[in-house]
Design goal:
The chain has one domain (2-223, 234-444): Growth Hormone, Chain: A (Up-down Bundle). Helix content is 73%, strand content 1%. The chain has 17 helices and 2 strands. A hairpin with a 2-residue loop joins strand 1 and strand 2 (348-349). Helix 2 crosses helix 3 (48-84) and helix 13 (319-338) packs antiparallel against helix 17 (429-441). The protein is globular. The model has no long low-confidence stretch (mean pLDDT 86).
């Protein structure tokens, strides 16, 4: 029973942290930020297309900086956590920062006066949430062995996506307002919030904070550090020595090196799809926050179902085939999105008022959610097959580094392509290239890992 509670506690962590991505990064705060930024830039004299591109570029800059911070702090934090023999205090500290930053997102008022402070708050909380996730992932090898690792990873990620679904539905039904000032129920925002001041949508930050604070409680109640609490040296020299040893080990292991390289590319591309999907719907298709929210519900439900199915497939076939299939699906989705506008599809004009772009983008949301969830779950399962349990936090620190070392690359490439072309759609072309390169590098990855070699 204690083991089952520990596993459930570990999986509930995904439930607690998922709304930061679902509500914050992708479907509510991100598009709201884009709309406020565009309006502010337009008031300052920019044309419509120029203001759209500037809004996307500002969001991309924030994501770039956050990705770099995560990349270069994760291995150090991993070494510190492993050396101290304790991971739970690190998760607790990062959780506090996440909650405080999320609550502060309320400051982004419609006039855009707090645009930059809100951007800083959001991505500071994002860094903290990702850092907590990296340390939590290092607990996975201590939960089970063999094929059960993939099933637990998939079930945890699926539970997280269900959290995203429920929190998003609640936001759309009771808080997030459209241009008419009403929620999906056709009523003003709950609790007397002022629709004109966008207080319903701005409540997304406090909602994320409250959700995290409540659902993290079972995690801390049921999960404890595994193994002895022996304390190795944690000074700068000792940590640097551990990191040098770990990096030398990567060079000697071709499968691990190829996997880290592949995941560096395809996870960077996936993060960009998540981060810019809502912005694309806002800037290209002209969707409202509520339309984007429905899109998010479809994607999150698909993610919850297909990620759980991916976990079962992982347990049966191993994680590598799941990763390959997910990447191919995401490449196909990106090709469709790049070829679609409000008025055309693959260069062919559509009838005025056609709903085909909307229907196809809803389908894309379902595929992005499902394939992205399965990709994330299977990737951390394959990392377990390459990790030494005694130094798992360091290993997942490298895993985080591989997913973030080029975190600047996709946002920077999107920003550059958008600026050079003046087109939001053209900005997504580099994402397709990153997915393809990641798929190519997977050819050198041992499907069973190389931990035993």
């Amino acid at each position: 029973m204690a083991t089952k509670k520990r596993i459930w506690g570990w999986m509930i962590f995904d439930l607690a942290q998922q709304p930061y991505a679902t509500l914050g990064l992708t479907f509510i705060f991100g598009p709201y930020f884009a709309a406020i930024a565009t309006a502010r830039f337009a008031r300052e004299g920019m044309g419509v297309s120029e203001a759209d591109a500037a809004a996307q570029s500002l969001w991309g800059m924030g994501q770039t900086v956050a990705g770099l911070v995560i990349a270069f702090t994760a291995p150090v934090l991993g070494a510190l956590a492993d050396a101290s023999g304790r991971r739970m205090p690190w998760i607790a500290g990062f959780s506090v920062i996440t909650v405080l930053c999320a609550a502060g997102l309320w400051v982004l008022t419609p006039d855009g006066s707090m645009l930059v402070p809100a951007l800083v708050l959001f991505f500071a909380g994002f860094v903290a949430a990702e850092s907590a996730t990296n340390v939590n992932n290092a607990l996975l090898p201590s939960l089970a062995t063999g094929p059960m690792i993939g099933r637990i990873s998939g079930s945890g990620a699926a539970l997280g996506y269900w959290g995203g679904v429920v929190s998003l539905i609640l936001m759309l039904l009771f808080l997030a307002e459209n241009e008419a000032g009403v929620t999906l129920l056709g009523k003003p925002p709950a609790f007397g919030l002022d629709a004109e001041a966008r207080e319903g949508t701005r409540a997304v930050g406090p909602v994320i904070a409250l959700w995290y604070a409540v659902f993290i409680i079972p995690f801390f109640a049921w999960v404890r550090d595994a193994g002895p609490k022996t304390r190795d040296p944690v000074g700068p020299r000792a940590v640097a020595a551990r990191l040098r040893e770990t990096l030398r080990d990567v060079i000697r292991r071709p499968s691990l090196a190829a996997f880290l390289g592949a995941s560096m590319l395809y996870r960077d591309a996936l993060a960009a799809v998540y981060a810019f999907g809502g912005l694309y719907a806002t800037l290209v298709l002209g969707w409202s926050v509520i339309q984007i929210g429905v899109f998010g519900i479809i994607g999150a439900v698909s993610a919850a179902i297909l990620t759980f199915a991916g976990g079962l497939a992982d347990a049966r076939l191993g994680p590598k085939p799941v990763i390959r299939a997910a990447i191919w699906i995401l490449i196909a989705v990106c090709l469709l999105v790049v070829s679609m506008t409000r008025d055309s599809l693959f260069g062919m004009a559509l009838p005025a008022g056609s709903t085909l772009p909307d229907l196809l983008f809803y389908l894309c949301g379902a595929l992005i959610g499902g394939a992205g969830g399965a990709l994330y779950s299977a990737s951390r399962s394959l990392m377990v097959r390459h990790a030494d349990p005694a130094r798992a936090t360091e290993a997942f620190g490298l895993f985080a580094l591989s997913g973030r070392a080029t975190a600047f690359l996709a946002p920077m490439a999107i920003t550059l392509a958008t600026w050079m072309s003046g087109s939001v759609r053209a900005g997504l072309v580099p994402v397709i290239v990153l997915f393809a390169l990641g798929l190519f590098l997977l050819g050198w990855v041992n499907k069973n890992g190389d931990r035993a070699e």
